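Can you give me the bound-state structure? Components:
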Amino acid sequence: MSRKIFIFDTTLRDGEQSPGASLNSSEKLEIARQLKKLNVDIIEAGFPISSQEDFDSVSVIAREIKGPVVICALARAKDEDIARAAEALKYAEKPMIHTFIGTSNLQVFDVLKKTREQVLEMAVKAVKLAKSYTQEVEFSAMDASRTDLAYLCEIIQATITAGATVINIPDTAGYAIPGEFGSLINRLSLAVPELRQGTVRLSVHCHDDLGMATANSIEAIQVGASQIECAVNGMGERAGNAALEEVVMAIKTRGEYLDAYTDIKTQEIINTSRLISRLSGFLVPPNKSIVGVNAFSHSSGIHQDGVLKERSTFEIMLPQDVGLSESVFVLTSRSGRHALRHRLSELGYDIPDDKVNKVYETFMALADKKKQVYDEDLLAIIQNELPVAPQIYSLEYMQVIGGTEAPVAVVCLQKGKEAIREVACGNGPLDAVCKAIDKITGVKVDLASYSLNAVTKGKDAMAEAMVRITVKGDHSIAARGTSTDIVEASAKAYINAINKLLASRGPAIVE
Ligand code: KIV
Ligand code: ZN
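Here's the bound-state model for the whole set.
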């Protein structure tokens, strides 16, 4: 039968220890509310003895966030730490004290300067004291992955006898390798009867110094662990903790293989990640698993085509399962017709078969100039390539010579199979272009208004020109044109307006 894996979130405690990340009480409360929505099993809200602000944060979270989620506070194996944690948790519906002490030789002899017996005594005393305040007590053997196995078993057994309900095995320095860590967890769960029988929960807490925090956590649950301590966006001391989103989605995606599940509402993952990133100022790298902006984006033409034909070719999770609305196809010069047509159809434009090649050609010309083609670019292309009015005239090419002397424009328009070329001078480049167009079309219009906007971002932005022309002072027609060149955008707008005019009035208006 599939086993439930408890998710212990330490974003507000270990996560908050990330260099540069610091959250105030009200921000922590907002995050705790979101963690409750995410449905984590335990929120480690802080380390009350470490500062008044941490104490206040734990207190307010304990008061405001009601069960079933457990609210936990950290305490060293010291009386004053435990009393302070208990005080902060006073109003919690489901409180838990998490007490810890270093157990590796480095921790016992070099840091604490104690004997193993003294450390064991301190751990037992701490658990007993914590138990006098809260029913749920977690004991962590800090640096467990570098601790002598026999001593680790001894201290675990002693703290269970003292009342610990959860035993946590931290890979504090992020030193363990998955097979090795799995073997440690397996041995512990076989050696300690309460862990083997599941009457005491076995938890792991992995750091990511070698990039193995998630792998180690997943390895551990396959050999007996039933709780993973983790932080959203992989926040935490140094390289961080196992990332909650990775652990949870690995269990969801490979649940059958792992024979395990969590109670996390995965659709809240993106909201949680973004909230925490915004409040902590801790940016999520674009290629971060699950929550990076590229995690559900496809850029290569082969991948885009594959996903459109059968999503599971290159997508092992549904974007909707983490709270995104859709996968994103990044349109670049590597994108194919299939992806372009798909995106245009999402934008509401179904391109007829006979127009696809032309639209694709324009798209590729733009994609060669720009790294990424945005929706606004596509809309601009569509306005040009699928004009509302029939294209009686279309721009073949143009050349403008500007400067302080009268600018000169050479314009060539296509009309049916015929290419017509004219030259004109004007007061400015646009005036010269319009005059050349007037000569070609023979239509006499006035330019009543003209405006220019950048519709996309960057130096290579698409410009959009809007023109309004009038004929003999009464009939007025507006049209738009786009290009990365502002004079060309203006010329296209002017030609589109004339096309509209000709379509509405017929050739009779030609003088
Ligand atoms: O990494 C660690 O060992 C810890 C303990 C306090 C559990 O954060
Ligand atoms: Zn830690």
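A couple of observations. The pocket of 3-methyl-2-oxobutanoic acid (ligand 1) is lined by residues 14, 100, 140, 142, 168, 170, 172, 205, 207 (CB under 6 Å). The chain has three domains: 3-280, 297-385, 394-509.
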